[in-house]
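Continuing the batch. This is chain 6 of the set; chains 1 through 5 are on the previous pages. Same settings as before, nothing changed between runs. Recording input and output for traceability.
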Amino acid sequence: MAEKILVVDDEIALQETLAYNLRREGYEVLTTGDGKTALELAHTFKPNLILLDVMLPGIDGFELCRILRQDMKTPVLMLTARDDEIDRVVGLEVGADDYMTKPFSMRELMARVKAMLRRVRMIREEVTSQVQASSESETLPLVFTFGNLSIDPSRREARLNGQVIALKPKEFELLLFLAQHRGQVLSREHILQQVWDWDYYGDSRTVDVHIRWLREKIEEDPSRPVRIITVRGAGYRFEG
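Output for chain 6:
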């Protein structure tokens, strides 16, 4: 079954170009140019990925992404004509998984799309394997526990002092990856490649931003972290 992509952009020419190229790659594509319709399609079409323009009539891309994140974990790739760093940070803050500035090469866009969908498939397969292994061994699914912090891959859920932590999809994936490599020094580039699946054009500031957000949620004092340690000139190390 073809993976489904929802394209949300009010530039008709770009909308049609994106749809044409995505369909050539074998994806099932729906398009729209306004936020309200996009919100409806996101729930009825149930896409595997959403390409979302920032500047939309009615509900803009930032607000739409924020609304979608309330009940959906679908990967979102934001598209914008603005190249300000603050826009990128805001996009990530509201839950976007990636961010591209117009004009962009169609080749790079397709590479990002394939990487994001590949990452989703990998996560789904990992969870399925864990559940099957648990069923066969008649034991509970693997849960990582570090003092008052627990991470449950099968539920895609993390808890601190027994309370569920509100994590965006990419924040959870990053935390899980760090937990799986406890004690290891991980470079920003390696984290990008493994968590975002970027082996091209990666922006290491994306990692720094997500690390900061994680620290605010799991560290007692984010300014003096004891769980996620910065290794100067090398990257990060998770101590648990």
